[in-house]
Give the backbone structure.
Amino acid sequence: MTDWFFRGDFGSAPTNIPVLMVGLLLSFLGGQLIAWVYMFTHSGLSYSRAFVNSLVMMPIVVTFVMMVMSNNLVTAFGLMAIFAIVRFRNILRDTLDTTYVLTVIVVGIGCGTMKFSTAIVGCLTSCLVFLYLWYTSFGSRHRYDIILNLHWARPATEMPALSSVLTRHSRNTHCASHRSAPGQEGTDLSYRVLLRDPDRMEDLLSELKSLPGVSRVSGLKAEDESEI
């Protein structure tokens, strides 16, 4: 059984299984490194956890593709034709969905070109990494617990009274919006708040409502960072 596995590629160029496993491992580590750099350096609203996961999976799938093709031009054109058909019939809006589709296509090509050992190792490795990304929620960034909106009617010089309440309940506070409408007294404020105790959101809202000069207080629980 073991001999069959290590000699299980019946294509024109049998694959060296240890080399394949090293290549898949290195591509996984490289994808992880690039994904971590992307997570720490990304700014703006277009952050997507699915895209981060795709950064990890794509090098593995590409390594799998190159091992299956083994410089075989016919196989390469076959891969392009199959993926073009899938792309024509379906519009994949999620980058991770595209990665899944590409993975199953390459597994099929590996089986169709009689590279059975390569297909098995590549498929198992891809499944393990997909499960790892799902189980660890890799790519998620938790930066705040609630979105807090309120109207401040007192002078700006008295803002420290508001800040002291927020500081008492939160570990980190970021003022995301500061709007003053023409002809209207006061300021509309929107905060992103990371609470010291996420279960005490109502205590924070109650204390803000009782603070003189504060009105229209509302709090919205924020899940993982929105993906836009």
